[in-house]
Amino acid sequence: MTFNQIFHFILNELSAGNLPQNIGVYTLLVLLVWIVVVQFKQQSGKYRTR
Predict the structure, then answer these.
(1) N or C: which end of the chain has fewer CB within 10 A?
(2) How far apart are alpha carbons 49 and 12 in whole angstroms?
(3) What is the torsion angle, in degrees rounded to the nearest 10, for the CA atoms of residue 9, residue 13, residue 17 and residue 18?
C-alpha cells in the first residue's frame, strides 16, 4: 500500500457521516492528541535536571 492509499483508508475509517460530524470528529481527535502531548511534556519536565 502506498502512503496515499493508507491516508485515504484512515480518512474513510474516521468519517462520521456528513461534513459537520466529520469536523466534530477531527476536532475532538486533535484536542485529544493535544492533551496527550501536553501531559507527556509535563511528565517529562518533572524528571528533567537543571
Answers:
(1) C
(2) 44
(3) -40
Please give the C-alpha separations between residue 28 and each of 32, 33, 37, in angstroms, as whole numbers: 6, 9, 14
Residue 48 has pLDDT above 70, yes or no: no
The pLDDT of residue 25: 82
pLDDT tens digits, one per residue of 10-31: 778 777 778 888 888 889 889 9
SS3 10: helix
Nearest CA to 29 out of 44, 15, 8, 43 is that of 15
Residue range 21-45: average pLDDT? 89
